[in-house]
Amino acid sequence: MRIDSILARKQTFSFEIFPPRGELPVEQAASIAGEMSADKPDWISVTFSAGGTGNSANTAAIASRIQDETGTCSLAHLTCLGSSRDDVDEYVGKLRDGGVHNVLALRGDRAPGREVIDFAYATQLVRHLKDTAPWLCVGAACYPEGHLEAPSLIADIEHLKEKQDAGADFLVTQLFFDNELFYRFREACVRARIKIPITVGIMPFTSTKQIQRMAFTCGATIPAAVIKRLAAAGDDPASQAQAGIEYACEQLRDLAANGVDGLHVYSMNKPAVAHATRVALQECGYLGT
Ligand code: FAD
């Protein structure tokens, strides 16, 4: 199943998982995805070496197992910094052999040892995938607050338009905690003639430390409403995590009421967190029972 065909007929609901580190990562990831499939997401995405974990060897295999074992559509991430065309083609071969028809085409973060070989930007990866594997549905990333390296949000949106022009079929946003920033970004995309569906990525924060880290790694603004809730939660880890789930559910309900193309939950590999978001979206009528 291709994600663009799903987006063509409905507002979607999906989860992201990342390959766990350590022993038996494929089994662990398959078991997490199995639990999450009970919440009937339209797809589950699997990251590719996100956060510098170096854990990308099993992304294609996990994406394939999710489909085979749970019947849920999967989306395999792929970064291109430090990769050659041959590396990309080999990965695409694994997706094809595993029956995976959806890929999220990313540049990846700059890091030592990840120099440009054949691809400097995600746009070039999107174009290569569209030229060489037209059977793939290709998604790309977008940034409601602008990518950290971009000189301005407008400049970033101009480059986003290039990803659409290269053939990207849909977009997934970076996480954010202030919905108003997303609504403004969406209007700017309309003005820039970006017409492909934008699915909105929301991450329930799990602790004060974690949200601080996110603010620095992806530049997300932390609104006063979040700070007040974390202050009320104090030093208790369970209260901080609960505040994160409640805040994300409020964000998701508001986005649902404002007509988004899709809602994507950065689940942090926690089926209980993913389930809480489904319940919230059922209660507000975005999802059926
Ligand atoms: P690009 O679209 O190439 O943009 C990167 C920067 O270059 C931007 O500032 C853009 O404005 C600028 N730019 C683009 N084209 C040009 C041009 N022609 N000239 C000058 N500047 C240009 N990382 C992982 O390692 N693994 C993952 O699985 C992963 N999953 C992600 C999922 C989502 C939904 C998101 C939002 C991010 C994810 N990331 C992941 C992080 C991502 O790799 C980083 O944010 C990376 O720094 C940028 O990737 P990109 O594909 O957006 O890059």
Question: Please, could you describe this protein's structure?
Answer:
The protein has 289 residues and is of the alpha/beta class. The protein is built from 11 helices and 8 strands. It has one domain (3-283): TIM Barrel (Alpha-Beta Barrel). The chain has an 8-stranded parallel barrel with strand order 1-2-3-4-5-6-7-8, surrounded by 8 helices. Helix 2 packs across helix 3 and helix 2 runs parallel beside helix 11 (271-283). It is globular, with a radius of gyration of 18 Å.
Structure described in brief:
This protein has helices spanning 3-9, 25-37, 59-70, 85-97, 122-132, 153-166, 179-191, 208-218, 224-233, 237-257, 271-283; strands at 12-17, 43-46, 73-79, 102-106, 137-142, 170-173, 198-202, 262-266.
